[in-house]
Amino acid sequence: MCVIRKKYLPFDPVSYDVINMAAADQEPHASSVRPRSYQDESYLHGFLGTMGDLQKAGVLQDVVIEVEDRQFPCHRLILSAASPFFRAMFTSDMAESRQKTVALQGLDTDMFGAILSYIYSGTLHVSLDKVQPLYQAADLLQLDYVRDTCSSYMAMNVEGSTCMDLYKFAGIFSLEIVRAVCLPHITRNFTEVASSEEFCSLSENQLTEIISHDELDVEEETTVWEAVVRWVQHSREDRQHHLPSILPHIRFNLMTSDDTAAILEHPLVREGPGSSEVIRNVVQKGNSNLKPRLGMTIEMVLLFTTEEDEVLYMNPQEGKYISCSCDDFPDATALTVTSYNQMYILENEREDYNKLSMFKYNHAENVWEHAGMSLVSVSDGKDFLVEVDQILYCCVADLREHSALVRMSKYNRHTDQWQECSQLQLHGTWHFSAALSCSSHLYLIMDSAMHRYDPSKDCWCERTPPNLKGRYSTFTTVAMGKEIFCTDWDFSQTTVYDTESDCWQKLQGWPDPGNLRASHTPSLFVLENQLHILLEVYDKVKGGPSTGYLVYVYDRSADAWRDLKAMIPKYEYLARSPLCPVVRMYLPYLQGAQIHITSYGCQR
Length: 604
Fold this sequence. Notes:
The protein is α+β, with helices and mostly antiparallel strands. Helices cover 28% and strands 30% of the residues. The protein is built from 18 helices and 30 strands. It has a five-stranded antiparallel β-sheet, with no helix packed on it. Strands 7, 8, 9, 10 and 11 form a five-stranded antiparallel β-sheet that branches. Strands 12, 13, 14, 15 and 16 form a five-stranded antiparallel β-sheet that branches. Helix 3 (76-82) crosses helix 4 (84-90) and helix 7 (144-156) packs parallel to helix 9. The longest helix is centred in the N-terminal third of the chain and has 17 residues, at 41-57. The radius of gyration is 33 Å and the shape is globular.
């Protein structure tokens, strides 16, 4: 039995009178009344509900879809409206357009039932155990919404136990959104992934994509070689001939000569045509562009000293302190470390101080080199260098007596040109603290104001300032995740900013300094995903420096700072922007450095 639904709106006598009056007023001038269109949302919703009722009641069905051994009575019109696949089938000269029963191949009964439920109700039920066959069915039937929903669901549910299976599925159906989420999980857990059965079923292209990744968390390159051996031996007869094309993706320049010699003697290499020659050619060329893997590097804080060309790399958590000389160190006006672990520095041109040259750090050679970029045009002011989503921005704050002008340009690597961006005009007297990147935006933070730049819209907007007390109060800032941390000159006030809610929250300041006070440039930095601060200490009783520099780490759960008892060489450190950049270092590149302290048992 078919149930016809009607929806009656409540009668409103006031509205009725108003409508009649309006109609009476318009009657003499009916020709001047403009026509209007109205959309009945209740009709649209009710229409879909009615179609569902017709399907449940088995009324007016004119075709039977047969999947495996089950039959689904349906309506040709409804199927054609929902699916281009069915539309082409029922509106063409295909035999199926005249058949009462149409058999579909390559579909699962349960999946077709789920899709039929979606077609008649608009509701889609997705679960992890069914999302892949559901996507395959939707792909066959050309249902874009179902495909997009399934791919988004897979991307949201990538984890250690599912990443390999979803990665392989994404490769078959070219699901870039799923593949992009799976890759970081695979690279961060490569040792575990490489020992799984799913790893051995990868295609050659998928294998090379994974082992070519800089982000592999392996401590030795031989781990990558061993994974390749396992993959080849899983089906040696079919895969042996792929080895010469896979070997160039292994970074033999990161292996010892003994490791390379042992690989050359491996049966897969000796017995495989061309493999030995490939390895020898790769080793001979010594491709320095192949970076160390993520797992081979360690995060280090870089401190600049007043000693000429002397820098200190340190990781207090690991008890590592490495001091070394860096030839031809630029006289930096601004510095940044990018998300792809490259350090850039701006330096004034000697012939023209209104121009800035860009230098980048060569990790392998431990030298600063000209970046090969066009010059940046500037004038007097405070310079900032910031990277947002792999694009470099140069920001110049021109401070005047009663106003400030912030001019910014971004670097276009394709044209090698700096393009002007939207300017920011401020009125009043401002003391600038920092410009930094957070959540795909650029933030300019001052003592009593904050502004955010949106690269996608090329516009500035005002945000809630930290409002710390005292002159020059907003001294040091750093971004971590979607938050920005800020503290004052004396490390007595610390706050955290949530970029999504535009709110600041107070945190604990320096724990009980007693007769001590911060005397010189406290600097926040993020090391191993933890908030740290470096500060120089002054003894108010003695009237002079106390214990040199201290490093504290912040415990978010306890809202407390803990002294790391860091042993920092007693240099005088220069204030650059930022004072404490953090960069991932491959320690063998610093073998020629003078190591002051190689290991120190820090209190944890």
